[in-house]
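Question (not urgent): is this output format expected?
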Amino acid sequence: MNTVRRSLDFHGQDIFVAMDTHKKNWKTCILTKQMEHKIFTQPPQPDKLVHYLKNNFPGARYHCVYEAGFAGFWIQQALTQQGVDCIVVNPADVPHTNKERVHKNDRIDARKLANALRSGVIKGIYVPQAQELEDRTLVRMRQLFVKKQTRSKNQIKALLYFHGIDQPEDICERYWSKRYLEFLHSVTFSHHTAKLALEALLNELEHHRQSIAQLTQQIRTLASQEPYQQRVGYLITIPGISTLSAMIFLTELVDIHRFRHLDHLASYVGLVPSEHSSGAHEHVGPITRRRNPELRALLVQCTWSAVRRDPALMLAFQELSKRMSKNKAIIRIARKLLARIRYVLRNEKPYVTGVVE
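Got this back:
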């Protein structure tokens, strides 16, 4: 008796996949529209996942999701290249119950993420192209070395203070000039071991300074090339924004047109207030902690410089400072500066100093 083997056919059906990603493995949860198929541990390889899906659900539409984090976007790019719809979500946007918060493991996280994907309650974040990500990596690396340099300086000052060494009054440590560095190299201790420790810190500081100088030159070279040259030229017409600042804004924002309006951009940067309202009670608190950490700190720093150079911003800051603290006033002015950044990038026009909004 001959038997006919029917092949699997999932055409028109949706399969939902969530990965809780780790360096050594992924905890993967697979759901259909009606049921949970399986939760399993797999190697951290997109090809393995795609092979499993095509073997078990041939012809289906595959939808994948994982949380943004250390894994970056290479998983999303690899799955997209193989025809899999994949999004990356902000971990803070994934809904969870109190039970899931207090009893947390990889299995629960994967199932929670898969259910959120199937129900459509989560939305993917913007994923830059590979070249855009690499340019951002270069710019962020300089910022990382600046932080390392600051840490080295603090360690040197702490060591001197610990051993009771005073610096000459005519030498300022603020900018760590050549003269100040010469003073540090000339410091003597009662025993040579402390001198060895100081020299080790000074060598580390010199390495950071050289790395920053090299990265700065590479970023300036990148800024003089397309697709950045023209947009950098527009941004540096805004008071308070340098070439390096412009490159940070461009590599972090990538495409200004993806922000529908100023409020959307301000929310991404982190310049919107928190709010706790219920019924007739409304409470607007300080600016939200949700932000792009690279951009908000830079924007505030640029704003302090801008209020000294732009008459319109200076006037607005002085008026605001009459009824609130300067730290609060500068945040209001930072939003105005952000509006200027958005304007010049969207309209591809230089900024005219002193124009009142």
